[in-house]
Design a protein that fits this description.
It is a single chain. The chain is mainly alpha-helical and 219 residues long. It has one domain: Phosphate transport system protein phou homolog 2, domain 2 (Methane Monooxygenase Hydroxylase, Chain G, domain 1, Up-down Bundle), CATH 1.20.58.220. Helix 4 packs antiparallel against helix 5.
Amino acid sequence: MTQVFVNEIEQLKKRILALSAQVEENVILAVKALRDRDEVLARKIEESDELIDAAEVEVEEEALKILALYQPVAMDLRFLTSVLKINNDLERIGDLAANIAKRARKMCKSPALPIPEELHQMGSLARDMVRDSLNAFVNLDDEMAARICEQDKTVDQLCKQVFSFIEEQGKANPDNIKYYLHMLTASRNLERIGDHATNIAEDVMYLVRGVIVRHRLSE
């Protein structure tokens, strides 16, 4: 490929990495807003989601332009298709972080009630999975990516435990049901963040190995 193609690929990498950094930060801050009952921080995250949406569109347009102009093959083609898929997952993670921030803001309007330790664990693990999936992408580390896929099972299990807690509290304290419903939604959003981080990890494995591993990890 020409030097112009190489330069465009490098520019695309910079765009997707910048988007990755913003999304990762929003996940970290959303978890913090939920944990600390920080209404100001939560509102800031909600407002910044528009920037993530705009960046996602720019990355997609750039990747499609490169595909149309150069018709790459082999590793270059896998890279571009992976970028398109990862870009979509990043945008969805950004949306979910904004949704968690919204739930955190609404929970701030109620008295401070117990939050299960499992929800904090979910937040930390989902945050780490996003960070590690992006590091795996940057470093083309398929072994790290495989470990992330395994961690998703833990997030799912924690989510079930949070649901059990909320179910018990809802029955015991029906007056606080809105608070616990916001908590439930936040936990579901964290679970989905874990799913999207897993998608990114699977795309990294495809990029490195040239094999689609989705639905085949048990093999």
